[in-house]
Write a structure and sequence with these properties.
The chain is mostly helical. About 85% of the residues lie in helices and about 0% in strands. The protein has 6 helices and no strands. The longest helix has 24 residues. The two termini are about 25 Å apart. The relative contact order is 0.17.
Length: about 110
């Protein structure tokens, strides 16, 4: 998988231009928020709460899309759909993929601000 699939560098560049000096703060806020959402996601999965899985996935999907992380957003969409369908089969595997992809995206985003 190439870096472009993890991050949409064109979208990220536009975001940098728009945010200017606030870009670093935006990235840092995304990271803090993402880690909270991942924790909430874990709780929802562990409790078997499909509705909450869908809600957390939907929220995280939007954040990922806004920051320019299309693959991560796509994984969240899959779990969002599972939650809406009240079908948690395979969600554990999807969550593992989301966690792994998030770590890659986080590293790449940090590189953008350093």
């Amino acid at each position: 998988m190439t870096e472009l699939q993890h991050l949409d560098l064109d979208a990220l560049s536009e975001l940098k231009d728009v945010m200017e000096d606030e870009f670093q703060s935006l990235i840092e806020t995304f990271i803090v928020d993402a880690e909270r959402k991942l924790a909430a996601f874990r709780v929802a999965i562990d409790s078997g709460n499909a509705d909450e899985v869908g809600k957390v996935s939907h929220s995280f999907k939007g954040s990922c899309s806004n920051i320019g992380a299309p693959y991560l957003s796509s994984l969240c969409k899959q779990t969002e759909d599972k939650g809406r369908e009240n079908d948690l089969s395979g969600v554990e595997s999807l969550y593992s993929g989301i966690e792994s992809e998030y770590l890659i995206v986080k590293e790449l985003l940090i590189e953008q601000i350093n």
